[in-house]
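Field: sequence (string)
Field: structure_tokens (string)

Example rows 1 and 2, in order.
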Amino acid sequence: MKRARDRKDEGTTRKGGIASLAVLLAFAMTPGPARAASEVAGAGMDGGGCVTTRDDQRITHGFDLHCDPDDPPNTLDIDWAGHRFHLAAVERTRCIDDPAIDLEPPVAGFDTVSGEGTGRLNGEDGATAEWVFTDAGTAGVEDHAAIIIRNASGEVVLDVSGTLTYGNHEAHE
């Protein structure tokens, strides 16, 4: 098993297209059968950490996101290279059990939270975020983060996806 500090070359970031996240978002946001955990009041995921890109750029994040977007609190903060995104409102969220993740022991009945929301980028309203976070087990060594941030003009300013170099995501009911 790879250790977190040995995986820094797996994260990616680009100013252009969104291919790194498009497949994850398509899977995670596609309507599908309801999960029992998603229907439990308060079910969600929290945590944070860092994804380090191939060029050693550190993207840090912290969040508390629920399966029901109307179940507060829903928070997300992303920091990178002098920039900061702060989530103001969740537009859509979904919790799923990804069959490719073998979470032992299964804690919440799901292991992936994805969503979309609006917020502030560097203090200015109108930015948007899309995310997919996974909980792949104890200590976060296989947890994953995929994030796209767009400014108020719709330009992609951050597109990153990778295994955490440090941190932990925890699904909970």
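Row 2 begins here:
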Amino acid sequence: MTPDGAWFSGVNVALSRLGDTPGVDAEASVREVVDRETRAWDMQDVGLLLSVFHPDMVWAWPRSYTSVDPVEWRLVMGRFDAQRWRRRYEDLFSRYELAHNRRSVVRIEVSSEADGAMAVVDIDTLWRERSTGDETNHWRGRTCKLYALTAEGWKMTSQTGALQYD
């Protein structure tokens, strides 16, 4: 028994449902979360987008696409707060329409314990401001999304903002 028996029990249930059951592939389960996030951006569906985040999610963003040194990164949204983040995304979606959202999964790795994972995803997401047509809000580069297996399935705990390594 762990000090937090309820948490451990919940993870065991999730593991049996998502990672240890014959025919169920943990990597495919993580890919489904990546694909769900992509669908959320495509459909500008705030509820679907929020469903991928772990309650302890923190999102660091580099100052620029070439700021590979984390000392230059910023925490622009703080720890996940569903109401605050909902307002932020509703505002984004009301002010911008999606011009395109191209995403390619480069690599997914699941820990040997099958309770943590990362997905490396190349993104090219272009937003067009509804009032002006401006297209300078462009997210382009490589991201690393980190996931934890919870009783509710895989949830994103952290992601680096888009970086360009070329």
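free_text_note (row 2): The longest strand covers residues 96-110.
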